[in-house]
Design brief:
Keywords: Oxidoreductase
Protein name: SDR family oxidoreductase
Number of strands: 4
InterPro entries: NAD(P)-bd_dom_sf, Sc_DH/Rdtase_CS, SDR_fam
Largest sheet: 4 strands, parallel
Strand content: 5-15%
GO molecular function: oxidoreductase activity
Number of helices: 7
Order of helices and strands: HEHEHHEHHHE
CATH topology: Rossmann fold
CATH class: Alpha Beta
Mean pLDDT: 94
Strand order of the largest sheet: 1-2-3-4
Helix content: 40-55%
Low-confidence stretches: none
CATH superfamily: NAD(P)-binding Rossmann-like Domain
Family: Belongs to the short-chain dehydrogenases/reductases (SDR) family.
Length: 174
């Protein structure tokens, strides 16, 4: 559809995620595991699979995949989510190497909790709990994550590929 409307693809962003109830790995059902990894990891792979040919036809470009701080450090009780986001980081790094000589840059952003309607629907106590691990003491603003994505898609990041960039208020440094 993009190619029909605009004639080329310059950049793409794969922003998919699915979660499951917090549980020890021994209590996670195969159904929950498959659902989370199918959406969060396979969804990014499918995006890459279809975006890359269009970017090749356009002479190159950039792709940004949304992973998570949990895809860098892990997240107890959230094994399917964390594993799927680790998979997104692995996809990002592998595909970046595969297509670097073709002028396609592939990176990932790894945000912490973001100030979304889902976060705002939580009680103040729940909000405090989920942001407690963020050294800057607050969730990310969506615009803060978006500005990093736009930088990675821009010519200012023309020599940046294969990175998983935390946008997490220092959370992965703990």
């Amino acid at each position: 559809m993009i190619l029909l409307l605009y004639g080329s693809l310059d950049f793409a962003v794969n922003n998919v995620a699915a979660g499951a109830d917090r549980a020890p790995v021994t209590d996670i059902s195969e159904k929950d595991w498959d659902r989370v990894t199918s959406i969060s990891q396979k969804g990014v792979w499918l995006g890459l699979k279809h975006e890359i040919p269009a970017l090749l036809d356009s002479g190159g470009g950039a792709i940004v995949n949304t992973a998570s701080h949990a895809g860098i450090r892990g997240s107890p009780g959230r094994t399917p989510y964390s594993a799927s986001k680790h998979g997104v980081v692995g996809l990002t790094r592998s595909v970046a190497l595969e297509f670097a000589t073709d002028g396609i840059r592939v990176n990932a952003v790894c945000p912490t909790i973001v100030n979304t309607p889902a976060l705002r629907s939580m009680s103040p106590e729940e909000q405090d709990e989920v942001t407690a691990g963020v050294p800057m003491g607050r969730p990310a603003d969506p615009a803060e994550v978006a500005s990093v994505i736009m930088w990675l898609c821009s010519d200012d990041a023309s020599f940046v590929t294969g990175h998983a960039l935390p946008v997490d208020g220092g959370q992965t440094q703990r």
